[in-house]
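The authors assume throughout that readers already know how a fold can be written as C-alpha coordinates. What matters is that the chain and its backbone geometry are given together, residue for residue. A single example would do more here than another paragraph of explanation. For illustration, here is how one protein appears when written out as sequence plus C-alpha coordinates.
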Amino acid sequence: MANETAPSSQDDYALLPKRIDNTPRPWWQVFIESSGGAALITVLIGGIIGGAITFFFNRWEKERDEQRLNREAQASRDRLSYEKLLEKKLELARSAFEIAGQSVANTENLLTLHEPGFNFCSTAGVERQIRNEYNDADTAWRRKRPSLGLLLSYYNSNGREVAEKWNKADVTLTGYMNCGSTLDGLLFAQCATKGAPQNKRKTRPCAAERIAVDDALSDLQQALSLSLASQH
Protein backbone atom coordinates (compact mmCIF):
# COMPACT_ATOMS: atom_id res chain seq x y z
CA MET A 1 0.00 0.00 0.00
CA ALA A 2 1.15 3.54 -0.88
CA ASN A 3 0.02 5.01 2.45
CA GLU A 4 1.73 2.29 4.70
CA THR A 5 5.40 2.85 5.47
CA ALA A 6 7.87 0.65 7.34
CA PRO A 7 9.50 1.83 10.58
CA SER A 8 12.43 3.97 9.71
CA SER A 9 14.56 3.56 12.89
CA GLN A 10 15.26 1.37 15.96
CA ASP A 11 13.23 3.75 18.08
CA ASP A 12 10.27 3.18 15.84
CA TYR A 13 10.51 -0.55 16.48
CA ALA A 14 10.49 0.08 20.18
CA LEU A 15 7.18 1.94 19.89
CA LEU A 16 5.44 -0.99 18.25
CA PRO A 17 3.13 -3.10 20.48
CA LYS A 18 4.75 -6.28 21.79
CA ARG A 19 3.31 -9.64 20.86
CA ILE A 20 2.08 -11.82 23.68
CA ASP A 21 3.79 -15.22 23.78
CA ASN A 22 1.06 -17.79 24.24
CA THR A 23 3.44 -20.80 24.08
CA PRO A 24 2.46 -23.15 26.95
CA ARG A 25 5.13 -23.51 29.67
CA PRO A 26 6.41 -27.00 30.66
CA TRP A 27 4.84 -28.54 33.72
CA TRP A 28 8.03 -28.49 35.74
CA GLN A 29 8.37 -24.73 35.23
CA VAL A 30 4.82 -24.19 36.32
CA PHE A 31 5.46 -26.36 39.36
CA ILE A 32 8.67 -24.59 40.32
CA GLU A 33 7.12 -21.14 39.95
CA SER A 34 4.19 -22.08 42.13
CA SER A 35 4.39 -21.35 45.88
CA GLY A 36 3.73 -24.99 46.78
CA GLY A 37 6.40 -26.23 44.42
CA ALA A 38 8.95 -23.77 45.74
CA ALA A 39 8.18 -24.84 49.30
CA LEU A 40 8.45 -28.53 48.40
CA ILE A 41 11.77 -28.00 46.64
CA THR A 42 13.07 -26.12 49.65
CA VAL A 43 12.05 -28.99 51.90
CA LEU A 44 13.64 -31.56 49.57
CA ILE A 45 16.92 -29.66 49.29
CA GLY A 46 16.99 -29.13 53.03
CA GLY A 47 16.34 -32.82 53.59
CA ILE A 48 19.10 -33.86 51.21
CA ILE A 49 21.60 -31.51 52.80
CA GLY A 50 20.51 -32.50 56.27
CA GLY A 51 20.74 -36.17 55.38
CA ALA A 52 24.21 -35.68 53.94
CA ILE A 53 25.34 -33.87 57.08
CA THR A 54 23.87 -36.58 59.26
CA PHE A 55 25.53 -39.30 57.17
CA PHE A 56 28.97 -37.74 57.30
CA PHE A 57 28.63 -36.97 61.02
CA ASN A 58 27.64 -40.56 61.79
CA ARG A 59 30.51 -41.80 59.65
CA TRP A 60 32.97 -39.54 61.48
CA GLU A 61 31.58 -40.61 64.84
CA LYS A 62 31.90 -44.28 63.88
CA GLU A 63 35.51 -43.81 62.76
CA ARG A 64 36.26 -41.98 65.99
CA ASP A 65 34.76 -44.83 68.02
CA GLU A 66 36.77 -47.38 66.03
CA GLN A 67 39.97 -45.41 66.65
CA ARG A 68 39.18 -45.23 70.36
CA LEU A 69 38.56 -48.97 70.52
CA ASN A 70 41.79 -49.62 68.62
CA ARG A 71 43.71 -47.45 71.08
CA GLU A 72 42.15 -49.24 74.03
CA ALA A 73 42.93 -52.63 72.49
CA GLN A 74 46.54 -51.60 71.84
CA ALA A 75 46.86 -50.31 75.40
CA SER A 76 45.51 -53.62 76.66
CA ARG A 77 48.03 -55.53 74.54
CA ASP A 78 50.82 -53.26 75.79
CA ARG A 79 49.82 -53.90 79.40
CA LEU A 80 49.73 -57.62 78.75
CA SER A 81 53.15 -57.50 77.08
CA TYR A 82 54.50 -55.45 79.98
CA GLU A 83 53.13 -57.90 82.55
CA LYS A 84 54.50 -60.89 80.64
CA LEU A 85 57.92 -59.26 80.27
CA LEU A 86 58.03 -58.36 83.95
CA GLU A 87 56.97 -61.88 84.88
CA LYS A 88 59.69 -63.33 82.64
CA LYS A 89 62.35 -61.08 84.15
CA LEU A 90 61.38 -62.09 87.68
CA GLU A 91 61.24 -65.76 86.73
CA LEU A 92 64.75 -65.68 85.23
CA ALA A 93 66.20 -63.73 88.14
CA ARG A 94 64.66 -66.18 90.59
CA SER A 95 65.99 -69.18 88.64
CA ALA A 96 69.48 -67.69 88.44
CA PHE A 97 69.76 -67.00 92.16
CA GLU A 98 68.13 -70.27 93.14
CA ILE A 99 70.62 -72.38 91.22
CA ALA A 100 73.53 -70.16 92.30
CA GLY A 101 72.43 -70.39 95.93
CA GLN A 102 72.03 -74.15 95.71
CA SER A 103 75.50 -74.49 94.18
CA VAL A 104 77.06 -72.37 96.93
CA ALA A 105 75.26 -74.30 99.66
CA ASN A 106 76.33 -77.71 98.36
CA THR A 107 79.93 -76.55 97.99
CA GLU A 108 79.84 -75.28 101.57
CA ASN A 109 78.60 -78.67 102.72
CA LEU A 110 81.37 -80.39 100.80
CA LEU A 111 83.98 -78.24 102.51
CA THR A 112 82.70 -79.17 105.96
CA LEU A 113 83.46 -82.87 105.49
CA HIS A 114 87.01 -82.58 106.83
CA GLU A 115 85.93 -80.65 109.91
CA PRO A 116 85.46 -82.37 113.29
CA GLY A 117 82.26 -84.40 113.50
CA PHE A 118 82.58 -86.00 110.07
CA ASN A 119 84.33 -89.17 108.97
CA PHE A 120 85.99 -87.64 105.95
CA CYS A 121 87.16 -90.94 104.49
CA SER A 122 83.73 -92.54 104.67
CA THR A 123 82.00 -93.42 101.43
CA ALA A 124 78.65 -94.05 103.10
CA GLY A 125 76.14 -92.30 105.31
CA VAL A 126 75.93 -88.52 105.48
CA GLU A 127 79.34 -88.09 103.86
CA ARG A 128 78.21 -89.93 100.75
CA GLN A 129 74.96 -87.95 100.68
CA ILE A 130 76.84 -84.64 100.83
CA ARG A 131 79.11 -85.63 97.96
CA ASN A 132 76.17 -86.86 95.87
CA GLU A 133 74.27 -83.61 96.45
CA TYR A 134 77.33 -81.62 95.46
CA ASN A 135 77.71 -83.64 92.26
CA ASP A 136 74.03 -83.06 91.38
CA ALA A 137 74.39 -79.31 92.00
CA ASP A 138 77.57 -79.15 89.95
CA THR A 139 75.86 -80.94 87.04
CA ALA A 140 72.80 -78.66 87.19
CA TRP A 141 74.95 -75.53 87.34
CA ARG A 142 77.08 -76.49 84.34
CA ARG A 143 73.99 -77.44 82.35
CA LYS A 144 71.90 -74.34 83.02
CA ARG A 145 74.40 -71.51 83.27
CA PRO A 146 74.86 -70.90 79.49
CA SER A 147 71.13 -70.60 78.75
CA LEU A 148 70.45 -68.55 81.87
CA GLY A 149 73.11 -66.03 80.92
CA LEU A 150 71.73 -65.69 77.41
CA LEU A 151 68.13 -65.26 78.56
CA LEU A 152 69.03 -62.76 81.27
CA SER A 153 70.85 -60.53 78.80
CA TYR A 154 68.04 -60.86 76.24
CA TYR A 155 65.08 -59.98 78.45
CA ASN A 156 66.66 -57.11 80.37
CA SER A 157 66.92 -53.60 78.93
CA ASN A 158 70.50 -53.24 80.20
CA GLY A 159 71.39 -56.56 78.63
CA ARG A 160 75.08 -55.78 78.12
CA GLU A 161 75.58 -54.89 81.77
CA VAL A 162 73.58 -57.93 82.93
CA ALA A 163 75.63 -60.19 80.65
CA GLU A 164 78.86 -58.76 82.07
CA LYS A 165 77.72 -59.27 85.68
CA TRP A 166 76.46 -62.76 84.91
CA ASN A 167 79.78 -63.76 83.33
CA LYS A 168 81.56 -62.58 86.45
CA ALA A 169 79.16 -64.59 88.64
CA ASP A 170 79.63 -67.59 86.36
CA VAL A 171 83.42 -67.49 86.57
CA THR A 172 83.59 -66.93 90.33
CA LEU A 173 80.95 -69.52 91.26
CA THR A 174 82.47 -72.12 88.97
CA GLY A 175 85.86 -71.35 90.51
CA TYR A 176 84.46 -71.74 94.02
CA MET A 177 82.86 -75.10 93.20
CA ASN A 178 86.07 -76.30 91.56
CA CYS A 179 88.01 -75.24 94.65
CA GLY A 180 85.74 -77.32 96.86
CA SER A 181 85.78 -80.40 94.68
CA THR A 182 89.55 -80.22 94.10
CA LEU A 183 90.23 -79.96 97.81
CA ASP A 184 87.87 -82.83 98.53
CA GLY A 185 89.52 -84.99 95.90
CA LEU A 186 93.06 -84.30 97.13
CA LEU A 187 92.22 -84.96 100.76
CA PHE A 188 90.15 -88.04 99.98
CA ALA A 189 93.05 -89.50 98.01
CA GLN A 190 95.13 -89.51 101.23
CA CYS A 191 92.60 -91.66 103.04
CA ALA A 192 93.95 -94.91 101.55
CA THR A 193 97.57 -94.21 102.59
CA LYS A 194 97.59 -91.78 105.49
CA GLY A 195 94.10 -91.98 106.88
CA ALA A 196 91.84 -88.98 107.38
CA PRO A 197 93.90 -85.80 106.96
CA GLN A 198 94.01 -83.30 109.80
CA ASN A 199 92.70 -79.81 109.15
CA LYS A 200 95.56 -77.46 110.02
CA ARG A 201 94.11 -74.44 108.22
CA LYS A 202 93.46 -71.31 110.27
CA THR A 203 90.92 -70.06 107.76
CA ARG A 204 88.05 -71.81 106.06
CA PRO A 205 89.10 -73.47 102.77
CA CYS A 206 88.26 -71.54 99.59
CA ALA A 207 87.36 -68.44 101.62
CA ALA A 208 88.70 -66.00 99.00
CA GLU A 209 86.73 -67.75 96.26
CA ARG A 210 83.56 -67.52 98.37
CA ILE A 211 84.00 -63.78 98.89
CA ALA A 212 84.41 -63.32 95.12
CA VAL A 213 81.15 -65.21 94.55
CA ASP A 214 79.26 -63.06 97.02
CA ASP A 215 80.57 -59.87 95.41
CA ALA A 216 79.69 -61.08 91.90
CA LEU A 217 76.15 -62.10 92.88
CA SER A 218 75.63 -58.76 94.61
CA ASP A 219 76.66 -56.92 91.42
CA LEU A 220 74.33 -59.11 89.36
CA GLN A 221 71.44 -58.39 91.69
CA GLN A 222 72.01 -54.64 91.35
CA ALA A 223 72.05 -54.87 87.56
CA LEU A 224 68.80 -56.86 87.50
CA SER A 225 67.17 -54.45 89.96
CA LEU A 226 68.12 -51.55 87.70
CA SER A 227 66.47 -53.26 84.75
CA LEU A 228 63.26 -53.84 86.72
CA ALA A 229 63.22 -50.24 87.95
CA SER A 230 63.62 -48.86 84.42
CA GLN A 231 60.46 -50.69 83.31
CA HIS A 232 58.18 -48.90 85.78
In short: The first helix runs from residue 10 to 14. The chain is about 80% helix and 0% strand. Helices lie at 10-14, 27-33, 35-111, 125-155, 159-189, 191-194, 207-231. Residues 84-231 form one domain.
